[in-house]
Amino acid sequence: MDARFPKIAEQLLLIERELRLQGLWDDTPPSAEALASVEPFAVDTLEFEQWLQWIFLPRMKVILEQDLPLPSASGIQEMAEVVFAGRSMQGRDLQLQILLKEFDQLIVTTR
């Protein structure tokens, strides 16, 4: 098991918690077609927060549970900056960006 797994698992829980606290957690999944997008971050079919909930978090959970290799890089926080740039900067957006940046840093940290 990769030594980063416990910290990454904790970070993923913090990201999920933040999405829930902000009221951005959906009970109903998007359509199968929306989830099947081949675009990065499913930008053509999902809101960024939906992508986090329905694609990113489940994929990372599978990686951790099945002891699969972690991605070699992550640019999720950069995408968050782009998404949130079009919004009035609120503290909640900033907190989610911080959590995503910490995730990115864990991914690039050597084992």
Question: Would you kindly provide a written description of the structure presented here, covering whatever features stand out?
Answer:
This is Protein YqcC. It comes from Pseudomonas chlororaphis. The chain has one domain: YqcC-like (de novo design (two linked rop proteins)), CATH 1.20.1440. It is built from 5 helices and no strands. It is globular and about 35 Å long.
How large a portion of the residues is in β-strands, by DSSP E?
under 5%
Radius of gyration: 14 Å
CATH superfamily: YqcC-like
Give the rounded overall mean pLDDT: 92
How many separate domains make up the residues?
1
In helices, the fraction of residues equals 55-70%
What would you call the shape? globular
Amino-to-carboxy terminus distance: 10 Å
The top-level CATH class is: Mainly Alpha
Structural class of the helix and strand makeup? mainly alpha
**Which sheet architecture does the biggest sheet show?**
none
Number of alpha- plus pi-helical segments: 5
Q: Regions with pLDDT < 50 over 5+ consecutive residues? A: none
Q: Give a count of the beta strands, DSSP E runs of length 2 or more.
A: 0
**CATH architecture annotation:** Up-down Bundle
Succession of helices and strands: HHHHH
CATH-assigned fold name: de novo design (two linked rop proteins)
Name the features.
60% helix; single chain; de novo design (two linked rop proteins); mainly alpha; 111 residues; 0% strand
Task: Please render the helix and strand layout as text.
Elements: H1 5-21, H2 32-35, H3 48-65, H4 76-85, H5 91-108
Helix pairs in contact: 1-3, 1-5, 4-5
